Amino acid sequence: xxxxxxxxxxxxxxxxxxxxxxxxxxxxxxxxxxxxxxxxxxxxxxxxxxxxxxxxxxxxxxxxxxxxxxxxxxxxxxxxxxxxxxxxxxxxxxxxxxxxxxxxxxxxxxxxxxxxxxxxxxxxxxxxxxxxxxxxxxxxxxxxxxxxxxxxxxxxxxxxxxxxxxxxxxxxxxxxxxxxxxxxxxxxxxxxxxxxxxxxxxxxxxxxxxxxxxxxxxxxxxxxxxxxxxxxxxxxxxxxxxxxxxxxxxx
Length: 251
Ligand code: MG
What we know:
Blueprint: H1 7-30, H2 37-50, E1 54-55, E2 67-71, E3 74-76, E4 90-99, E5 102-111, H3 117-134, H4 143-156, E6 160-161, E7 167-169, E8 176-180, E9 197-200, E10 203-205, E11 211-213, E12 220-222, E13 228-230, E14 233-238, E15 241-244
Antiparallel strand pairs: 1-4, 2-4, 3-12, 4-5, 6-10, 7-8, 7-9, 9-14, 10-13, 11-12, 14-15
The structure holds magnesium ion.
Magnesium ion is lined by residues 105, 168, 199, 201, 232.
């Protein structure tokens, strides 16, 4: 069952989203050569708790970090630690914030200094795919419209959609129905109704679509070692159209 949220509940999710967006902006400002992913994790946890929130990922199925930090060919679910960022790296930062029992989820992939042109294009295309998908969160459209917006944009650029990882409904739980694949057919899948809130999250490899899980049981890597990007918003479908609840890239 897809849980629809009332306008008042969406306001609560937007409050969680505002904390999320400010946390992401803070982390974005910290990303540079020499910083460790543990430092980002500590700063995120401190900030989220200072706002009365809880870092949603901490302890989720035993996850040890407050955020996920996934460099280079690591797609998602990286555990923060002593890994020091270097010039030319990219880093995906995924943050979950629970505030007053409501969750906001979102991610961005950031360059560390200057990066090579193909990797820069990967980041650009994956973010564009997220924006195009978010525009589909309109009552009367279907999940397949969201999915296809990601797929068509990414594949036209020659990159690969990761099919084994998907977005999700979100609300009082981080993961609710339905699943939001990053590939699909327009006009297919569950109908989007007012009050539905989805975490839309394109995950894209420069090379082939395969991924594998690392020895820590969490980190997911591109199968061929190629660079991987991940961007995510929490988006509500409203009568006035799509509403991004954690607009981390807007001032
Ligand atoms: Mg998510």
